[in-house]
């Protein structure tokens, strides 16, 4: 199974844990609630659903028959509804408990974070701290690369490099706040926050817990 299809499987199981859904509703939830899946199409979703049915994690059920008074097309078929089985719920619990390096990567972390409300506190902490460590390593590499090459870069490429570094620094600060909230055990869990790589409104907010890397300034 590819990493991307594994993320889709995780998200589908998580959404169906909330309630049974038909394929169109699932796709809509993946695109709107979990925006990281905007690139997925029916061509990706339905093979995933069929695989999960074969594996025994989902069952297909026929939804209510369409009302003949409101459906103009005769013979219109009822929608197939997908429901999580006991085995599917158990499998999703196993996936939720995973906190290894895969859970720290960009797309997988975003999917994992979307289901943090169903994840135990110790697993949330391991995922958040692992993600922060991964980003701090990335930030160091970016700084080293910029130090080596900045004299050879034109203004626009240099600005793009700075933008990338600022995005990573912003997410590290965001993670610091989330980790501090988890450690403090505050009621209500995590505070509403923009997703990683969100708007620059986060730049002016006070950091909580840990020190960020040096701020990259413009050479105006």
From TrEMBL:
The keyword Coiled coil applies. Keywords: Coiled coil. Residues 179-220 are annotated as: Disordered. This is PadR family transcriptional regulator. The keyword Zinc-finger does not apply. Residues 125-166 form a coiled coil. Residues 12-94 form the Transcription regulator PadR N-terminal domain. It comes from the Bacteria.
């Amino acid at each position: 199974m590819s990493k991307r299809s594994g993320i889709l499987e995780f998200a589908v199981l998580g959404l169906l844990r909330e309630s049974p859904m038909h394929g169109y509703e699932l796709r809509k939830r993946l695109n709107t609630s979990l925006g990281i899946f905007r690139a997925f199409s029916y061509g990706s979703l339905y093979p995933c659903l069929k695989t999960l049915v074969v594996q025994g994690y989902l069952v297909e059920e026929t939804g209510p028959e369409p009302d003949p008074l409101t459906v103009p097309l005769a013979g219109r078929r009822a929608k197939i509804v997908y429901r999580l089985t006991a085995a599917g719920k158990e499998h999703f619990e196993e996936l939720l408990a995973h906190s290894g390096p895969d859970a720290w990567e960009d797309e997988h972390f975003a999917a994992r974070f979307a289901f943090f409300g169903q994840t135990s506190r110790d697993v949330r902490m391991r995922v958040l701290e692992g993600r922060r460590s991964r980003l701090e390593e990335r930030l160091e590499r970016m700084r080293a690369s910029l130090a080596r090459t900045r004299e050879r870069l034109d203004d626009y490429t240099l600005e793009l490099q700075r933008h990338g570094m600022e995005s990573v620094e912003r997410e590290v600060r965001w993670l610091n706040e989330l980790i501090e909230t988890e450690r403090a055990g505050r009621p209500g869990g995590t505070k509403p926050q923009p997703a990683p790589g969100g708007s620059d409104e986060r730049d002016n907010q006070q950091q909580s817990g840990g020190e960020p890397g040096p701020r990259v300034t413009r050479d105006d």
